[in-house]
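Structure first, sequence second, as always.
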């Protein structure tokens, strides 16, 4: 149950972040890309520094030190050359959107087979998310304010789809729990009959 609770929390946090970023991308496309790129660079530097410090304090394996140094170097490059890195970030985002859309497409087909109401909505939204992903991947080189706003819309669509998936999973989980409880209520009184 703890694992399910953790998944629920992660899902809710990802929905909130996706909606917030989507709104910001639509409202302030030029500033968002710059700030997100710089924030990513700083985050990598901090992550790398934590790895290096952890290596010297805990005397952990060389892998931690190497990974920390790589993160610091990558973070510095992103901070210095963030304009050149932006298209790469958009490609990574596009791959994430495409993978998420295809996964939800497969899930929606199963949901439609179970005749749940939200199945068709998820199906349409997952196709839209996949299309957003493909556009982000193919148009990353020509990054314009329109593309950034397009990504913002994609994030909001992704969040809506995640909300619907969350409701579907919650409903299916409730059905499974009810089915398990129903089987526990079945009386299993039996008598053994010996053969002569």
């Amino acid at each position: 149950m703890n694992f399910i609770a953790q998944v629920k929390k992660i899902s809710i946090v990802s929905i909130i972040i996706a909606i917030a970023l989507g709104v910001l991308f639509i409202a302030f496309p030029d500033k968002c890309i710059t700030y997100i790129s710089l924030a990513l660079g700083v985050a990598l530097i901090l992550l790398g520094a934590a790895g290096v410090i952890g290596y010297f304090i805990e005397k952990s394996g060389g892998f931690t030190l190497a990974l920390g140094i790589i993160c610091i170097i990558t973070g510095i490059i992103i901070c210095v050359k963030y304009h050149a890195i932006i298209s790469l970030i958009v490609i990574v985002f596009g791959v994430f959107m495409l993978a998420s859309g295809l996964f939800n497409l497969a899930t929606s087909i199963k949901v439609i087979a179970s005749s749940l109401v939200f199945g068709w909505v998820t199906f349409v939204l997952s196709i839209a998310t996949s299309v957003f992903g493909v556009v982000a991947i193919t148009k990353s080189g020509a990054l314009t304010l329109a593309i950034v706003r397009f990504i913002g819309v994609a994030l909001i669509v992704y969040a809506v789809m995640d909300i619907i998936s969350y409701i579907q999973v919650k409903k299916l989980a409730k059905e499974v729990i009810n089915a398990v409880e129903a089987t526990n209520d079945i009386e299993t009184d039996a008598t053994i009959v010996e053969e002569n």
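Margin note: The helical segments are 2-27, 29-58, 62-80, 82-113, 119-138, 145-184.
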